[in-house]
Every structure is written in structure tokens, then in C-alpha cells.
Amino acid sequence: MTVIQEGTVTAGNVVSARRTRKVAAGISPLRPRKSRLLTGLMLLYLVYTLVPLVWLVISATKTQSDLLSTSGLQFGHDFALFSNIKETLTYRNGIFLRWLGNTLLYVVVGAGGATLLATVAGYGLAKYRFPGRRVVFAVVLGAIAIPNTALAVPTFLMFSDMGLTNTVWAIIVPSLVSPFGLYLMWVYAEQAVPQELLEAARIDGAGEFRIFWTVSLRLLAPGIVTVLLFAVVSTWNNYFLPLIMLSKPNLYPLTVGLTQWSNQAQGAGADPIYNLVITGSLLTIVPLVVVFFLLQRFWQSGLSAGSVKQ
Amino acid sequence: MSALHTVSNRRRWWSHREIRGWAFVAPFLVVFALVFLAPIGYAFYLSLYREQAFFGGNTFVGAANYVDVVTDARFWDGAVRVLEFFAIQVPIMLGLALVAALAIDSGRLRAPRTFRLVIFLPYAVPGVVAVLLWGYLYGTNFGLAGDVNDLLGTAIRPLSERWMLTSIVNIVTWEFVGYNMLIFYSALRTVPEDLYEAAALDGAGPLRTVFSVKIPAIRGAIVIATIFSIIGSFQLFNEPNILRNLAPNLIDTHYTPNMYAYNLSFGGQQYNYSATVAIVMGVITAIIAYVVQLRGSREAL
Amino acid sequence: MKIGHRRRFRRLGAITAALAASSLILAGCGGSGGDNGSAGSGAKASPQALDAALKKGGTITYWSWTPSAEAQVKAFTDEYPNVKVNYVNAGTGNDHYKKLQNAIKAGSGAPDVAQIEYQALPQFALPGSLVDLSAYGLDSLESDYTPSTWAAVHVGDGLYGLPQDSGPMAMFYNKDVFDKYHLTVPKTWDEYIAVAKKLHQADPTKFITDDPGDPGFATSMIWQAGGKPFTTDGKKVTINFQDDGSKKWTSVWNQLVGDGSIGQIAGWTDEWYKALGDGTIATMNIGAWMPGVFESSVPGGAGKWRVAPMPTYDGQPATAENGGSTESVLKQSKNPALAAAFVRWLNNGNGIKPFLEKGGFPATVKDLNDPSFVNKPDPYFGGQPVNQVLTAAAKSVVPGWSYLPYELYANNIFGDTVGKSYLAKSDLNAGLESWQNALVKYGNEQGFEVNK
């Protein structure tokens, strides 16, 4: 909230030039009634979404032997959630926590960087009519249309030449690029940042980067949050690239580590630890839910930022 | 609009400033060139050669690999399958996502935040647990599918030839409705309120507002989501690759073009041919995506 | 170092060339050629050289997914404190091979010592990625190992590892199920078929065994039947699935696959483990390392399972290897003598004990004949001394088998070919034929001379 007020001050006359924007549902003049029919239909969809997740949660409460002897949507004989969590966190000298730390590093640097780069670039593409704009669009589109699994080996050999394999950079550098984030910001900035606003700021004598920093960024907040969320989740779930690039388990992110645990169930010397794989997976979802909760406030605040001036 | 008039009066100064757009785009493009364009360049180089997996012997073959791919029945088998998948799955997924986004945005839903979170959650489930998860849900011996069949007296085997593509459609839909819903939802958040007011003054009901105001207003986001769904469909890999653990005979190594490229590369060390498959598929995908983009929105981008 | 740098420059050159204008002429000289024959070998060292290397010490990296690897490395460094071993679990099976293959192709990043399954060994040995250990005199250890595992670590005349374990096949059967349906333990495949049909007719939810189509199992079954579908002599490879052995196997297995008396649950999944525990699967013909898996992972089957010799075609004992690994030294190793010394310790020295403690099944004759190992009653199997059956199996492995030099590729496309026959419950022979055709084509494309 304080952020918004600051914005109103620094942006000065800029804000007054802004179009009136949508108001939070609660105070909208068009405030609709709640619809039972709609809620009911959406509830059906919610159940569809939830069934697999319920399986995950119930399974995380089972011991390995209950997992292999009881039905999926029933609880086991023992309620083992807490012992599973404890075992997950301590198995093999607590390597899970190490993987969690790695994942956090990759997410903070990778997804944070990706969001920054995508935001700046998307804004540039939306708000400046420079020559070569369409080429950027076509090149990026063309590049991402090529399946990346087939690029894994060329990328690996290149990174190996540059001495990047088996380092954190092998994971971070590629995750700095989010073509999807770029497009989303592009579309978003077209709509969220009115040209008149930029004009007004320019008349005030503000430089381009300053305008971006003090005026546009704020308006882009809901879009940035969306891009950030996608970048966080995709970096969090990044599996294929680390699998190829890393052979030191100390650098693994959670996804690769958990897969390794899961693969213990195969072949001679098999030692399945499904209970830890499942509990570990549940634990990896929890931080994402937290991130979601934290970020969804920004959808609201981005919204009310637009509604400050009516 | 009105801004454009002021612009044309000062063209020189204006275009000088427009160039600064490059400064915004440059950092992205530098990294992009390193992690996307360079490997693609390398892959293109590979696609012009043939190297024997065990004895080396790199020889330049020009377009021979491309000729082989274009006449490779296995490649087309996968390509047709993803096309079929795309035709069924994308409309369902985007339709559901749009409805969900509009519903959550409408203010007519109770507990909209819960819906928003839960519908998004599947996207956060790690791939490794997906094998266990779908193994259970689709299992006819001990799984949910078996229980449902017992209950309803049906004999649906989700991992059989007849149902496999449907099963994949279901997984992808489950995972990505929430993802696309959020794209639409956040775009709806930018729709100017005065548009709604104008519609209300015109006496438009909620449904008409949806079709005449909201959907046109987020057209750009719809186009982007469609383009990325096309690319995602044509690169279909994770889900069939996961189900391959459960149905290894049904999902063969060339079930989708991306799986084909992957298996050529990692199963047979046929890097040159794999790169060619990827490039051919990339070109096909890009053309289709580009056509959709051109048709979809001239003004959005 | 020098070689590495040059290669590095060459490849980067190739990349930029391709990038800049994809000018074909420029790129023509580049390329990332095979990595054969970089390290200099030649000079014949002796076992003493290995002792010297151990004494001198150093650092080596070891990639393995063997459950006992960590304990073994610890025991080793306790014994040789001046040697540092970086133990890395780089993945199980195919994930491990992917990384190994990439590191070999990149010219750096491979470990000094790696676990490699017998079936995959030719694939790494043949292109020259592994060190021939006979250079260190380790070929003198022949009499310590069973003939089948000793054959498995050879490719051509080279010795490319020492056997870590073995997997002679036996028939594990669920006695509860056998008792309940009044089945007798089959000694021949004909009896096995009869039992299978009787069981499946009595209860259609029960299966004599589970086989969704598995290349390792299929090749082992052909092996047991006396088939020798793969022969390799340098670049010359012969693939023949139409020999008597292959036909013998398909004539039996066709009858079981065809009428659905075999279950087709994908192996090593949680569903499969469930089915092993609850009587859905009545027998498994599988390697001698299986008791460890049962004990750690199939609690529901405790006390129910027993072991018997694998059924044969004529009632005479005959079996095959199923699974098993070697440890090998990579050409990229900067300290191959130390690496070889480590391998010797692992699979011929004090490393065997921690391996056996984790439930591994040995390849060494001495351990296979050790009465305390052979006669140990196993409570999981109702007190049966299972090793009596399993060690006897190790002695009746049909000789003369060899794997294809590109077995991993073959495994990968098994589902595309033979798997389709399993799916359609149709003639496996036809599936084998299309497997053969695909393998011949691939081999010839990769520079082998297959069936020529």
C-alpha cells in the first residue's frame, strides 16, 4: 500500500493521465451476485483437479509397506507422515536439504533473472517501434519451436567446451531465458502501460530508463508476478537439463535427486523408497504453494494500484 | 490512437529514441543467443553430417539427412499423432482455462482464491512423482481405473491402445489448464474498467460483456497461449515418456517426434539424425505457429 | 591437457562457423570425432605396478549405483588412507550411461572407474573408451571367477573390467499360491505351461509369471535355450534370431503370452512390487540377486516365496545369466593404474565382503563355494537355504553367450518391435524378426558389418 502512495507522488501528473482502470471486485460498481450454478460447476472441475493431489497427500502418510499393500485413496495402517518427513530430511546424511538449497539457488537466481530479462525486453518490444522488432519475434518463435530434447547434446558439448558442465552456471544460465515470459510481458505491456503516460513523463523530461523504472514497472506488476510465478515453477521443475549437465549429486536440484531415489527401485540391488519419493515430492510442492500465496497478493495490489485514481 | 499524432510531428527525435528499445531487448537476446541460437546453430551443423556412433568417421552429407527425415515413416507417424493430439487437446484445455479465468474474474464465484490456487497446483507436481501418480490412477489391477470399472461395470483400460491418447490428453489438460487460466486471468486484470462501464450503460448482460468486451480485450494473451500450446503439443514429450514406464510396448521410441529425437540421441547416439528430426519438426511447428499468430492478431503484437 | 584444448578449440570453431553463416566449407574440417585411442597404452605393466600406485596414492572418481558402493569406498579409504575416492551416484542404469556417454563424447568429465552392466560393456569397450586391464596383468585372475562372468568382462581379446556380481537364473515361486491351487513345482517348460494354464483357469486374476516384454529377460531366456543370436568379431557382427535356441524359447513363451496366462505389469513399478507381494504373480525366473530385492522390498511375500532351479527344456540343469555388472577403468582416467588397483580391490579383494553384506550375489568361485554362504538358511524363504539352489545355478550357465556391441540401443527399441507382439499377444518370432531387421540396419549405419 505504501508503495502505491509513493508511486502516486513520484509519478505526479503522470497518474492523472492514466485511464481509469478496473476496481477490485469488492468495491466495483458492477459488483455481481455470487452464482451458485457457477460455483457448483467449478466445484466439479475442482474435484477433477484434486483427486490426483489427494492421492499424493494420502500416500505421503503411508509407510513403504503400506504403500505396496493398501489401496491408493485409503489411509494405511500407520499414519507415517511425520516419520516419512523426518526420514526424507535425514536420508543419506540429509542430502534432500542440500538439494532443496540448490533448487532455491537456481530458482532465486534463475527465475529472478529470467523475470527481469523478460520484463525489460518485453517492455522494450511493446513500447518502442525500433527496426528489427518483428525479426526478434520471428527468431525467438522459430528457436523455441525446435524441440529442446534434441538440443541437449549440442548444448552439453558446448557447455563442456566452456567448462560449464557440473557447475551451477550450467543450470542457471539457460534458465535465465524465458521466451514465454518475454511474449507475455510484451502483450501485457502493450495493454498495461498507456502510451500517453510515457508521453507525459517524457514531457516532464524523464529519461527512458527512469520512466521504465519509476512509472512503467509499477503498472507491469501483475504481469511481472505472473511471469515470475511461471519462471519459478518451471525452474523449480527443471529436470532434463540438470540431468544432462550435472553428474555431481551435490549440485542436483530436487527433481533430479528425487528421480534418482525413485530409480533405486530398479534392477539388481533394488531398494525402493517410494515413501520418501512421494513425501519428498509433496515437500517440494509446499514451497511453490507458499510462493503462490505470496505472489497472489501482488495481483491484488497491482490491481488496486490501478484503482488509486478513480 | 491520439498519441500517434503527437508522434508524427517529431519523427527524427522519435525514431532516435525508438532505437533505445534495443537496449531493453539486448540483455535477453545475448543470453538467448547463447542458450538457444548457438545450440541450434550447432544442431544445424550436425544435421549436415553423418557420424558413425562407434567408429567416428564424420562425413558431410549435405541434405541427405533431411531427405531421410522427410521420407521417414516413423517421423510422420509421430508427427500425425501430435497433430491429432493438438486438435483434440488444445481446444479443450484453452476452453476450460478461459472459462475458469472468466469465472474467477467474474466475482460471481465463492472462494475464488481457492479455485485459483487449486487449479494451478497440478502444474507444480514434479514429473518424478507423476509416474507413481498416474500409475495408480490408470492402474487396472490395483488402481483407481480398476475400482471405477468395478463400480460402473465398465472395462476401460487407460493404458491400452484404444485409450492411450485420451489418457495423455487427460494428463496434459489436468496439468496445464491452471497454467493457461493464470495467463488469461492476469490479462483480464488489465482490462480497463471503463470498458465494462460502457458495456453496462449499453445494457449488456454478463454473457454479452464476456463476449464483446472481455474476450476481445485479452485477445493478445489468447494468441500467446495458443502459440505456446501449439509448440507444447508438437513437442509433446514428458507425458508419453512417463507413461512409457507403464506401457513400454505401446509407447514406442517414435511415439512423438520429440521422443523420436530424444531416443535417437540418447538411445542410439544418432546425433546427426536426431538434430535433423528436431529441425524439421521445429520448422513445421514454427510455420503453423506463425500462421496462427498472423491470423490471430495483427494488432496484438 | 593439450589434446583436450585442441579439441575444445576445434569444436568451438565448428560451432561459430555453423552459427555465423553455416558456411559449409569452413565447417568441413571441424567436427567432434570419436575419442578412440587418445590415452597411450602399450607398455605392459604388472600387478606390482598396481601395488605401487596404491602406495603412492592419489585421487580417483568412481561412478556406481551399487547399493554397497558407499560402504565399499569407505572400507577402501580406511585401508588406503592416501587414496581419495570421489564416489558419485550419477544415476541408475540408463541415466548413468547417458552421462557416461556424454562425458566420453565431450572428451572430459568421465570418472576413472565406472560400474557397467555386462550387457552394456561391449558398447563402451569396442569404441576404445575403456582400459584393457590385461595390461596390468589382471588376466591372471581368471580362475577366481565363474566362467560365465569371466566371459562377460571380455570383449574380443581385451579384459575390460572385473566381475562384480553374477545373476544366474533360478525360479522363485510363491509356495502359498502353489499350495492353494494344488500346483506342483515344474521342472520342465512343458510342465510350466501346464501349471500356468491350470492356475489362470482356476483364478483369472492370478498369473504364472509377469513379463510385459523385457529385453534383458528375453535375451536371457534365449541364452538358456542355447541360442546364440549375437556374435561379434571386430566390426563383423552377426544377428540371428532364427536359430534353434530362439525358436525353442518362443515356442514355449508364445503359448503363455498368447492366452494371457502371463501378466503384463511393467517391471520395477510399485504395481509390480504389489503383485509380487499379494500372490498375483506366482513365479519369477530371474537372477540370483533377487532375494535381496524380495527381502528389502516385498514385505508381503515374506515366508511365502521359495527358490527352485529354473525349468529347462529337457529336465537337465541349464540356466543363463540375468543382469550383473563389472567395474571398468575409463581411458579418460589420468591415473589408470590406481583406478585398476581400486577395481582389483573392489572385485577381487576386501571389497567383496561389504558387497555381500548388502545382499549382493558374488561372481567369485571362492565365495560361491563357501559353506557358510551356501548353506545359510534364509528366514524370508521359510528357512530354505536358497543359496544352495542359486550357487548350483551359477555352475550350470550355458556357455558361449555374448551380447550385441550395441545392446543398449537394442534394449531401447525392444518395445518398438518384440513389444508389439507382446501387445497383440501374437507370435514372438515375428517380433524377434523385426527386432533383428532394425538392429541389422542400425549396425550397418554405424559402421559395423552386420550379417554381411
Task: Write a compact overview of the structure shown.
With 310 residues, chain A is mostly helical.
Describe this structure as you would to a colleague:
- The complex is a heterotrimer of chains A (310), B (301) and C (452).
- Chain A is mostly helical and 310 residues long.
- Chain A contains 15 helices and no strands.
- Chain A has helices spanning 2-11, 13-17, 36-59, 64-67, 81-127, 133-144, 148-161, 169-175, 179-192, 195-203, 208-219, 221-236, 240-245, 254-263, 274-307.
- In chain A, α14 (254-263) packs antiparallel against α15.
- With 301 residues, chain B is mainly alpha-helical.
- Chain B has one domain: MetI-like (MetI-like fold), CATH 1.10.3720.10.
- Chain B is 73% helix and 3% strand.
- In chain B, β1 (49-52) and β2 (56-60) form a beta hairpin.
- Chain B is flat.
- Chain C is α/β, with parallel strands linked by helices and 452 residues long.
- Chain C folds into two domains: 45-166 and 324-369, Periplasmic binding protein-like II (D-Maltodextrin-Binding Protein, domain 2, 3-Layer(aba) Sandwich); 169-320 and 390-450, D-Maltodextrin-Binding Protein, domain 2 (3-Layer(aba) Sandwich).
- Chain C contains 21 helices and 15 strands.
- Chains A and B meet through α3, α5, α6, α7 and α9 of A and α1, α2, α3, α5 and α6 of B.
Q: From the helix content, strand content and strand pairing of chain A, which structural class follows?
A: mainly alpha
Instruction: Specify the helix fraction band of chain A.
Output: over 70%
Q: Widest sheet of chain C: strand order?
A: 2-1-3-14-6
CATH-defined superfamily of the largest domain in chain C = Periplasmic binding protein-like II
Structural class of chain C: alpha/beta
Oligomer: heterotrimer
Could you outline the blueprint of secondary structure elements for this entry?
The complex is a heterotrimer of chains A (310), B (301) and C (452).
Chain A lengths: L1 H10 L1 H5 L18 H24 L4 H4 L13 H47 L5 H12 L3 H14 L7 H7 L3 H14 L2 H9 L4 H12 L1 H16 L3 H6 L8 H10 L10 H34 L3
Helix pairs in contact in A: 5-8, 5-9, 5-12, 5-15, 9-12, 10-11, 12-15, 14-15
Chain B lengths: L1 H8 L1 H9 L1 H27 L1 E4 L3 E5 L3 H7 L2 H34 L5 H9 L6 H11 L6 H9 L11 H25 L4 H9 L4 H12 L1 H16 L3 H7 L12 H10 L4 H26 L5
Helix pairs in contact in B: 3-15, 4-15, 5-6, 5-9, 5-12, 6-9, 12-15, 14-15
Chain C lengths: L1 H19 L3 H4 L19 H10 L1 E6 L5 H11 L3 E6 L5 H13 L6 E5 L3 H5 L21 H6 L1 E2 L2 E2 L2 E2 L5 E6 H6 L8 H14 L6 E2 L4 H10 L5 E4 L2 E4 L4 H15 L3 E2 L6 H8 L5 E5 L2 H8 L7 E4 L16 E5 L6 H13 L3 H6 L7 H5 L1 H4 L11 H10 L11 H6 L1 H11 L3 H18 L3 E2 L2
Parallel strand pairs in C: 1-2, 1-3, 8-11, 10-15
Antiparallel strand pairs in C: 3-14, 4-5, 6-14, 7-12, 7-13, 9-10
